[in-house]
Write a structure and sequence with these properties.
163 residues; mainly alpha; 6 helices; 82% helix
Length: 163
Amino acid sequence: MVLGIILLIIVFLYILISTTVFKEYNEVEANFETLVKVLETRDLLLMRVLPEVKNKKTKEIIAKLVSERMNAKKQGADELLIKDVALNRQLKNVYDEINFSKNPIVKEEFRRIVHLEKKLKQIRRQYNESVDKYNKVFIKHPKLYLKYLKMKPLNTYDIKETK
């Protein structure tokens, strides 16, 4: 009987902590995973249309940035966001060149990339909003997060959207 009450209290405390402390963090993680998946899809499509780009320097820069962005995923969210911003700054040149392609397959791939870019804009916004919520909770209880849970504030990012 006493053991049952203790287990019930432990379960209740776990649910209370997970709904208050980890709710925002779990939302950030879910948005981050969605962001990564869409970025990977966009990058694969980019690599498919990259041969259509005439400017060799632009081609090399994009290929390098895509590779760095994919490797940054292993290094953590901050590094991935930095690499995504760098890649995004270079995409306008590629998109301008691909947009004038006469190849119907490339045109279709480009249409899919534009669709993903619109989706990415929304996902980035959701990610930033969830990080802001998490950071607000973090500010209220910094000792709990830093000392006991070994968590830290997260960074948001804003980029000028292409297309």
